[in-house]
Design goal:
This protein has 330 residues and is mainly alpha-helical. It contains twelve helices and two strands, in the order ββαααααααααααα.
């Protein structure tokens, strides 16, 4: 591309064209920032609605009539159609549905109907993307220079990636949610200790911790609030604690649940046991932070070599190079 006459160039590139492109990118970024700032939503509203729905479902299972229970059970026509299609193809198994539902709960997705969508995605995505890549590689001959091994590798990789995409998405959400819960767990246990020593019941303590930590750690507050609701409605309190361990994919939470179940069963002091767990989790969090800090010098080596050292060389050696060039010319 030949730059227009009179426009400055740098290494053969039109500077005005690059400046125009960067201005367009900056304007688009400003519009995106304005849109994000003006359309921000309160996450608590959605969270409170989900908790109220769970409370109503528990009420319906205990006190409501049969007609009201049927009204409170939410049906999804799309999920029903996917379920009927998968059942007709004999590919829908109860074990798969249970595993998908548990992963959805660990990812913070409360609707169990999405489990069918996950299994349906595993079936449909490889067919759609696989057919597209087969047409692109073998029929359209988009890569004529590639050998048969490369073409087969590309097609097989697309098939595998399309099949794993729903699981990769869920695992990513589970990891992020688990990390967020792990950060706030020591503070939550400290508050539980204070509430237990103040004489509050376990239900009231979970309610109070969820209310106090809901803003700083919304994921943890959500789980504690849901546990408090289940403690008030389920016939077996042990089931509420086990549901908490099932919804959170953390060994630390499983340890807390085991402690809570033992204190409920044997009447051991709750505050002392939670205080020990809180100290252990704080030490673990400190060790994890120290480990990240110890890895920092090795991680900073590549940015230092690629970005910082060349800049220093230009700043330090640039004036000397210009002086030598002027001396040689004159």
């Amino acid at each position: 591309m030949t730059p227009p006459i009179g426009h400055p160039t740098l290494l053969g590139v039109d500077v005005m064209w690059v400046a125009t492109l960067l201005c367009g990118v900056a304007a688009f970024a400003v519009l995106v920032a304005i849109y994000a700032a003006t359309t921000v939503r309160d996450p608590m509203a959605k969270r409170v609605k989900a908790l109220n729905d769970r409370r109503e479902q528990l009420k319906a299972g205990i006190t409501a009539s049969t007609k009201r229970r049927a009204k409170l059970i939410q049906r999804n026509d799309t999920a029903d159609r996917m379920r009927s299609l998968l059942s007709s193809m004999k590919v829908l198994q109860d074990s798969q549905v249970k595993v998908a539902q548990q992963k959805l709960m660990q990812a913070g997705i409360r609707s169990k109907e999405w489990a069918v969508a996950v299994i349906f995605g595993r079936l449909v995505l490889p067919i759609v993307f696989g057919a597209f890549i087969i047409w692109l590689v073998y029929i359209d001959q988009y890569f004529p220079a590639w050998g048969p091994i490369k073409k087969y590798g590309l097609v097989a990789g697309v098939f595998i990636l399309a099949y794993k995409t729903p699981d990769l998405f869920l695992n990513n959400k589970i990891k992020k949610r688990s990390d967020a819960i792990r950060k706030g767990l020591p503070d939550a246990l400290d508050l539980l200790v204070i509430c237990a020593e103040a004489g509050l019941t376990v239900d009231a303590a979970f309610h109070r911790v969820a209310r106090e930590l809901g803003r700083a750690y919304p994921e943890l507050g959500d789980e504690f609030q849901l546990t408090a609701i289940e403690l008030g409605f389920l016939t077996e309190r042990r089931q509420a604690f086990e549901n908490l361990a099932m919804r959170v994919n953390l060994d630390a939470v499983k340890g807390v649940v085991t402690t809570m179940i033992q204190t409920e069963k044997y009447g051991t002091p709750l505050a002392s046991a939670l205080r020990v767990l809180s100290a252990e989790f704080r030490n673990e969090r400190m060790m994890r932070a120290e480990e990240k800090a110890a890895r920092l010098p090795a991680i900073m080596t590549i940015p230092l070599i690629l970005f910082i050292l060349p800049t220093l060389f230009v700043v330090i050696l640039g004036p000397a190079a210009c002086s030598i060039k002027d001396a040689l010319i004159h």
